[in-house]
């Protein structure tokens, strides 16, 4: 019987990447316990990346008011919080939910907000993959054995209308479909991004080494990126940053030959789409965050990496300053070759 027939509510916020990482876990849960009902809570825009997956029964936007959250948690058998949310813990207790599980600081356990506590980890240990971390905690919360799962993540498939809309946006920017294209999503977190001068050197070399057009993606316009594209003055550079919806991004990344990116949500999306993905890790931890399928992380793997909290604590920043454009482009070539050979 296990959790068959049970209603399970899982908070996973705030980022898109976390939800994509969660997808194989949800698929495994539904495969083992097909009659359980899975409701996922996160921010509305983030939820779009998984809400159409066949094993996600419902979604609950956490940024649209308490009424939506109360409606989402009502009647649940299990409420599982991946992150520390004391106000929502209290709400779940008031609602009388019998199983309330989440991380909690020791000084707050006296309030009895949860029926079971995860260890309170402000930082996931560096020696554990994020997917394993999620799986272990969720199975612990449900009192079931840790389930095996596939390495392949998934994202919601765009509709036919969304596909047309994304292609029209590309065409409006000058892409005529005659050549293949490479995607670049250069910015995720300011502490771990590739600096603009390194990005410029890399793009200059790519323009020499590849005949592809290059499409830039990102959640918002970046002044430095806009200036860089202007200085390079190539009609093969297409700036879509700040102009795409999540569905647009999925469509565009699905059609790319390769995706060069930061350690960010787009990294997880393109890997889930089986597009060869080359994330550049500076101070971040590829062992923890890099997807395992269709992903070829680039890192100098210095003895001091990853930094504490993933942030630079030194002045020379060797993990950034020692990166060379030719190393990234060489890794990109290897990524494309491995993908063609079916290796990942």
Describe this entry's structure for a reader.
The protein is of the alpha/beta class and 344 residues long. It has two domains: 7-142, Glycogen Phosphorylase B (Rossmann fold), CATH 3.40.50.2000; 160-340, Glycogen Phosphorylase B (Rossmann fold, 3-Layer(aba) Sandwich). Helices cover 38% and strands 14% of the residues. The protein is built from 13 helices and eleven strands. It has helices spanning 16-32, 44-47, 66-73, 86-94, 130-142, 160-172, 196-209, 223-232, 246-254, 265-272, 286-289, 318-321, 325-340; strands at residues 7-11, 37-42, 58-61, 78-81, 99-103, 116-118, 181-185, 213-216, 237-239, 259-262, 277-280. The strands form two sheets. It has a six-stranded parallel β-sheet, with helices on both faces. Strands 9-8-7-10-11 form a five-stranded parallel β-sheet, with helices on both faces. The radius of gyration is 21 Å and the shape is globular.
Structural class: alpha/beta
CATH third-tier fold name of the largest domain? Rossmann fold
Biggest β-sheet: strands ordered side by side in the sheet: 3-2-1-4-5-6
Unreliably modeled segments: none
CATH class of the largest domain: Alpha Beta
What is the H/E order? EHEHEHEHEEHHEHEHEHEHEHHH
Q: Which of globular, elongated, flat, extended, rod-shaped describes the shape?
A: globular
Radius of gyration: 21 Å
Q: Write the CATH homologous superfamily of the largest domain.
A: Glycogen Phosphorylase B
Number of strands: 11
Question: Whole-Å distance between the termini?
Answer: 36 Å
Strand % is: 5-15%
């Amino acid at each position: 019987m296990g959790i068959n027939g049970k209603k399970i509510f899982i908070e996973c916020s705030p980022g898109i990447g976390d939800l994509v990482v969660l997808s194989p876990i949800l698929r495994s849960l539904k495969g083992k316990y097909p009659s359980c009902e899975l409701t996922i809570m996160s921010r509305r825009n983030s939820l779009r990346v998984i809400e159409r997956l066949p094993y996600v029964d419902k979604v609950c936007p956490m940024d649209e008011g308490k009424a939506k959250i109360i409606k989402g948690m009502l009647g649940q058998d299990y409420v599982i919080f991946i992150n520390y949310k004391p106000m929502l813990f209290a709400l779940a207790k008031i609602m009388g939910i019998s199983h309330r599980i989440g991380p909690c600081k020791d000084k707050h356990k006296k309030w009895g907000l949860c029926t079971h506590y995860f260890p309170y980890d402000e930082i996931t240990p560096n020696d554990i993959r994020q997917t394993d971390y999620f799986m272990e905690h969720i199975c612990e919360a449900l009192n079931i054995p840790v389930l095996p799962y596939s390495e392949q993540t998934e994202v919601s498939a765009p509709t036919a209308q969304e596909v047309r809309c994304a292609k029209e946006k590309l065409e409006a920017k000058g892409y005529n479909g005659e050549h293949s294209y490479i995607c670049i999503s250069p910015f995720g977190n300011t502490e771990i991004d590739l600096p603009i001068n390194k990005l410029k050197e890399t793009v200059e070399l790519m323009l020499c080494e590849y005949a592809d057009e290059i499409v830039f993606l990102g959640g918002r316009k970046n002044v430095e990126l806009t200036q860089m594209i202007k200085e390079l003055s190539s009609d093969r550079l297409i700036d879509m940053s700040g102009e795409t919806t999540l569905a647009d991004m999925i469509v565009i990344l699905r059609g790319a030959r390769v995706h060069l990116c930061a350690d960010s949500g787009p990294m997880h999306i393109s890997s889930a789409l089986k597009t060869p993905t080359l994330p550049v890790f500076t101070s971040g931890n590829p062992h923890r965050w890099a997807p395992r399928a269709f992903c070829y992380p680039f890192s100098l793997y210095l003895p001091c990496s990853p930094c504490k909290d993933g942030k630079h604590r030194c002045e020379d920043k060797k993990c950034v300053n020692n990166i060379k454009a030719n190393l990234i482009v060489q890794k990109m070539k290897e990524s494309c070759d491995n993908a063609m050979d079916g290796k990942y």
